Amino acid sequence: MKHIEVFGTEKLARLRKVILHKPQQSLNLVNPANYQECLFNFVPDIFQYQLEHDRYADLLRSQGIEVLNLQDYVQKNRTLMDSLPNLPYLNDTCLITSQGAILSKMCPGSRAGEEKVVGEALENLGIPIFHAFEGEDQFEGCLAISPEILFLADTERHAQKTLEEFFNKALHLFSQIIYAEIPQERRYMHPDMIFGRISESLALAYLPAFLKTYLITEKQRTEINIRDYLAHREMELIDISDQEQQLWGCSFVSVDANILIHYDIALNLRTQNELSRRGVEMIPFHPEALLAGGGSLRCLTLRVWRDSNL
Prior knowledge:
One of its GO terms (biological process) is L-arginine deiminase pathway. By secondary structure, the chain is α/β, with parallel strands linked by helices.
């Protein structure tokens, strides 16, 4: 398999390459008796789910983004792939930086083992692993606020011990970590459910979920007010409502700074107007069948490379 030459997404620039996974056999495992255990909101209409997934992939391509199919880079773990109904939600499995990937360790249950499939794909693509969680670790995702700042949250899908042990390693890659203690509820199950960067100077956030927030560096851990701290770094936070948060308001795909692809149900008119006034372009996508899995378009998208990440 041909290795890709460049990768990394921590610097927010034009998105050029992503990995998607259009499910085949795995969605057949979700039924009326187990859909909640599988972390689905309802039993998916498989045909319509696949059609919507194709429509989303076509939308990405229309924006000049190369779409790689996960199954094209997996051989050893093909059988495992067919047993993982949540595997389409690739964002939770990995953050790809210009220094390598931070590979998650998915929690016990229907998502256990996803990292093995994704890890094989990364190996076959020639993307090195900066850090892979293992053993009893539980870690389902993080996000880059900038090339200097990593955002971590103690969601219900992260073990506190795992996070604490990762801080020092993460500081070899990012000079600062913003770490939030948040409610242990499914609606906040991954960090992108409460924070989403739009540009170097703008982000959406649901601040009621930030119970306590800390700035962690090699020298200290200090409690901060995230709005004030980011304001000092010239990043404005736009607040979203309770309803917007539950409709994945913070979780979107940035095509470039100030250009995002988002569910058309996610943000209310007020927030859309706030974004428009700041020059943000939102490319809408209407979901129906995709909502079965309880994830956003960002969740479905493993971003591989943005311009300027070398």
